[in-house]
Amino acid sequence: MSALLALATSLLWGLADFGGGLLTRRMPALTVVVVSQCVAVVVLGAIVVATGGFSEWGPQLWYAVAAGAVGPVAMLSFYKALALGPMGVVSPLGSIGVMVPVGVGLVLGERPGLLQYGGIAVAVVGILLAGGPEFRGAAVRRQAILLTLLAAFGFGAVMALIAEASTTLTGLFLALFVQRVTNVVVGGGALCVSVKRGAKALPEEGGMKVVWAALPALAFVGLADVAANGTYSVAAQTGPVTVAAVLASLYPVVTALAARGVLKERLRGVQAAGAGLALIGTVLLAGG
Q1: 199, exposed or middle or buried, with CB in 10 Å at 0-12, 13-18, 19+?
Q2: What CA–CA distance (Å, rounded) separates 91 from 78?
Q3: Which of 12, 53, 267, 273 could anchor a disulfide with 170, C-beta 3.0 to 4.6 Å?
Q4: What was the pLDDT predicted at 135?
């Protein structure tokens, strides 16, 4: 059961990333983040009320608030990077954010095994290979790589923070709810600032009609991300964490396959090799 839940996590995260990146090609990234997270807030709020999760309220939820403040920055960076593409490179690089919780473990006294040290080295080589061909004469690709690394750090920080925000299933629902509310507040504030500076909150062509038409897809992105957090948490609690982490870390494969199947993306050989090495590094880090 744990393995199946972890595989479900990778599927949900992979599809959410693909959907978010695809939507960002049609509307502003901040709008995608805010609207998708608003849907998640409504659904999670109903779940918290139904399960009595508010009884778990306590100071540990400040970790969820911190995770919610970091989350929109990571999601915005990642969706922008996915929109710049290619998704088959961006998504695996984003998965190296697992190094952040590994670093937190080091600070707390844990020592990585040989596989984890190897994973760090392999992931760094993957970054260089995946980004290197784009550094000369292609500012857009360089921007995509930098945005992806920023997103990876943010995702890793969220993983480390949300892990400290709850100890029970109902507490997890409450922590995720608080996190998403903070996501909406921070993301909504950033959207307002962006609009005041002259940016568009709605697509230039179609405006609000495009957003309404894309609402089911936006809802899927927000709910898939929340569901993935839930299935991973249960998988880690009901089985070996290393197995759950390795299987859940396969989500970039889902994104890459979706991009190849839907968008017909084709990667250069060195880019594909770099993306593959980044994914291998992630698996080694999680499995070590």
Answers
A1: exposed
A2: 8
A3: 53
A4: 47
CA count, 13 A, side-chain hemisphere, 65: 6
Q: What is the DSSP track for 50-97?
A: HHTGGGG-STTHHHHHHHHHHHHHHHHHHHHHHHHS-HHHHHHHHGGG
What is the spatial distance between Cα 214 and Cα 102, in angstroms, rounded to a whole number? 37
The letter for the amino acid at 201 is A
Q: When comparing pLDDT for 201 and 57, which is higher?
A: 57
Cβ atoms within 10 Å of 252's Cβ, excluding its own: 27
Residue-wise DSSP of 157-220 = HHHHHHTTS-SSHHHHHHHHHHHHHHHHHHHHHHHHHHHHTT--SS-TTTTHHHHHHTHHHHHH
Q: Which of 252, 248, 249 is nearest to 282 (CA)?
A: 249
Distances (CA, A) of 74 to 43, 94, 125, 187, 253: 22, 10, 22, 11, 20
Q: How many CA atoms lie within 13 A of 28 on its CB side?
A: 20
Structure tokens at 128: 């260089």
d(CA 36, CA 30): 10
Contact 100, 254 (CB under 8 A): no
Question: For residue 190, which of 41, 30, 6, 18 has the smallest C-alpha distance?
Answer: 30
CB atoms within 10 A of CB 1: 9
Indicate the domain borders of the chain: 2-287
Q: Which residue, 160, 39, 20, 35, is CA-closest to 85?
A: 20
